[in-house]
Amino acid sequence: MRKLWWVGLAVLVLLAAGSWWFGTRAGSDQPGGPGAGPAGTPAPSSGQGTAGTNNGFKGMVLQNPREAPDFELKAADGSTFKLSDQRGKVVLLFFGYTNCPDVCPATMAVWKELGKRVKDRADDVRMVFITVDPERDTPKRLREYLPKYGEHIVGLTGTQEQLKPVWDAYSVKPERVEMPDSALKYAMAHPAQVYLIDPEGKIRLLYPLGYKAEDIEHDIRLLLEQRQNRG
């Protein structure tokens, strides 16, 4: 139990440490109440705040959106996924692993609900899960794990050498935590936020742990509406 508590704490520390790259910090780790640094503006949780906050977005807005670093990895189904090929779509990006006891299943549960909510825009949305545990997260393992949360989730894996440049590009620093008394043997501490990449390929929003599917749905539809209005 103490080991899992430590892993959970490490996840929150990594969340705060990783988000500086995007010009913001995560702040509070309480669900529905993320804080932000000078360059990032927090959104109210569902049902809170006033209309127009963050230009109408619910997520944590990056005041100076940066182009998302491109990458190419193998998907669990054997196909090749290249981020730059997704231009014109909204991409949600999460770094996790299938043996994660808390953050990952919580995030995937939100994505499961989100998949139902944006089913009518399925061609315009990609939800991408990149492993931080390539030793255990083989393509077969991802094919077993992710469909529980929906066929719409794309699972990406590879070797340590293939994944590390992607982790580095997004300031993701997975840390292995040995648990010799557990059947799992080890856990991986990793950031807990979801990155939203807009149709122009820029990282526009962050969602620390605690955001709801309805919040993310709202932002996806707003971005797609803005794209349509621009023609």
Task: Please give a quick description of this structure.
The chain has 231 residues and is α+β, with helices and mostly antiparallel strands.
Q: Which terms would index this structure?
A:
231 residues; alpha+beta; Glutaredoxin; nine-stranded mixed sheet; two-stranded antiparallel ribbon; 5 helices; 11 strands; 29% helix; 24% strand
How is this fold's topology laid out?
Blueprint lengths: L1 H17 L21 E2 L18 E8 L4 E4 L4 E3 L7 E7 L6 H15 L7 E7 L7 H7 L7 E5 L2 H10 L5 E5 L5 E5 L4 E4 L4 E6 L5 H18 L1
Parallel strand pairs: 5-6, 6-7
Antiparallel strand pairs: 1-2, 2-11, 3-4, 3-7, 5-10, 8-9, 10-11
Helix pairs in contact: 2-5
* CATH class type: Alpha Beta
| Coarse shape | globular
CATH homolog superfamily: Glutaredoxin
Number of helices: 5
- How much helix, percentage-wise, in residues? 25-40%
Q: How many individual domains?
A: 1
Q: Give me the CATH architecture, please.
A: 3-Layer(aba) Sandwich
SSE topology string: HEEEEEHEHEHEEEEH
The total beta strand count reads 11
Give the strand line-up of the largest sheet.
1-2-11-10-5-6-7-3-4
How would you characterize the largest beta sheet? 9 strands, mixed
**Uncertain ranges:** 1-53
Mean pLDDT: 82
Distance between the termini: 53 Å
Domain Thioredoxin: 62-225
Binding site for Cu cation: 100, 104, 190
GO molecular function, one term: metal ion binding
Keywords: Copper, Disulfide bond, Metal-binding
